[in-house]
Write a structure and sequence with these properties.
alpha+beta; Immunoglobulin-like; Four Helix Bundle (Hemerythrin (Met), subunit A); 2 domains; 5-stranded antiparallel β-sheet; 7 helices
Length: 391
């Protein structure tokens, strides 16, 4: 029986081998049993690409290597002739089927149409293999005779259901798995760390965090606690309005970028996040217009307006914070962003709690002072009414 030490050493050996795996350590050959001319360690998803360009027949022989995130998962590589993302890409995908690696072609007309289909260019010598949990796709594709590079994409997914690829994750590595592939290998593979879609998502997140998550709560704090002090009137009102109007303008910009992202990302839907965002926009718009219908202080319906205004305002704050954290979970940014916003939110909460205590102390003192102050009613010691002086 093998000793535990043997298994421990074997584990360290395999771990060291996996960590040292690079494209140069992989000796892969094309359909003609020739080593590929170029290779690259792709920057995300632990993937590798080998390729050889043959200008004589305008072809590109490739070998894509990646490990699916789970044993029943899939890998894919493709070329996008018209854009830089997944939509419009011509893709080869590999997955296990009845104990063998199946390779199918996909014409990704949109994110919602992920079904096998013929590619827009010729492809031959297609095969796949699996070795030690890693899959490989081999193929030769037709490219432009005058072209020197192509936009390529790659991806990995967790599972396959009835021959259909299940959705992959939407983490930054999955969203950034694209780049430019130079035929001669001189430029290698170039991948932007922040693609245009991710940049728009970041802008969307920052705008909404500042508006719904900071300025709106700050405006509520100003209105609730500053008006307790008579000396702050009417300054608190103008500060409150300025804060809320600024939050609304920034929030509308964030809402607009979100709607644009939704229209540009067909097939990718975050229904709850989207619906909360639309509700926030509607309620905030209602609040702004309700300002013009605000009754004067002594109007008999003023208390009804106050109930409405406060209820809608607190609802906006609560839903805004919830939606911001939903956005964090979807965008999955660096932890520092979520931590920073959490610290800001906690700071606002601490300030609000402190001011709440101060406000109650002031209010209770005022009530106590009123109850102990007796108004002179014209009686002497409460018994005999004092007569006016005769002049």
């Amino acid at each position: 029986m093998a000793s535990p030490l043997f298994f421990l050493l074997l584990t360290f050996f395999l771990a060291g081998t996996a960590s040292s795996l690079t494209c140069t350590t992989q000796k892969l050959t094309d359909a003609r049993n020739r080593l590929y001319s170029n290779c690259a360690d792709l920057p995300v998803l632990g993937s590798f690409l080998h390729w050889t360009h043959d200008p004589a027949n305008a072809s590109l022989a490739v070998a894509f290597v990646a490990a699916p995130p789970s044993p029943g998962g899939w890998i894919s590589w493709g070329i996008n002739p018209t854009a830089t993302g997944m939509a419009g890409a011509q893709v080869l995908a590999a997955f296990m089927n009845d104990g063998a690696v199946a390779v199918k072609t996909f014409d990704l007309k949109s994110y919602s149409s992920i079904v096998p289909g013929k590619l827009s260019f010729d492809v031959w010598d297609v095969r796949g293999e699996a070795v030690g949990g890693v899959m490989r796709i081999f193929a030769t594709v037709k490219v432009s005779e005058k072209g020197e590079s192509v936009n390529h994409v790659w991806q990995v997914g967790p599972s396959v259901t009835a021959g259909r690829l299940d959705k992959h994750d939407f983490n930054p590595p999955n969203l950034n798995s694209k780049g430019m592939l130079s035929f001669n290998g001189g430029q290698g593979t170039q991948v932007s760390l922040v693609d245009p879609i991710t940049k728009k998502k970041n802008i969307h997140g920052i705008l909404n965090a500042v508006s719904w998550g900071v300025l709106f709560p700050l405006g509520v704090i100003i209105a609730r606690y500053m008006r307790t002090f008579p000396s702050a009137d009417p300054a608190w009102f103008y500060l409150h309005v300025s804060c809320q109007v600024s939050a609304y303008v920034i929030g509308v910009a964030g809402w607009g970028t979100g709607m644009k992202l939704g229209s540009d990302s067909e097939g990718i839907q975050y229904s709850v996040h989207r619906n909360i965002g639309i509700t926030l926009f509607c309620l905030a718009t209602l609040q702004i217009f309700a300002l013009f219908l605000r009754p004067v202080k002594d109007h008999k319906y003023r208390y009804i307006w106050n109930i409405y205004h406060h209820s809608v305002g607190y609802s906006i704050v609560i839903m805004g914070i919830i939606n911001i954290f939903r956005g964090f979970s979807m965008l999955n940014p660096d932890k520092k962003w979520k931590s920073t916003y959490s610290i800001v939110l906690i700071a606002l909460g601490v300030v609000a709690l402190f001011l709440e205590v101060i406000t109650w102390i002031v209010v209770l003192k005022r009530k106590s002072k009123k109850s102990t102050t007796k108004t002179y009613d014209g009686y002497d010691n409460g018994e005999n009414r004092q007569q006016p002086f005769n002049v």
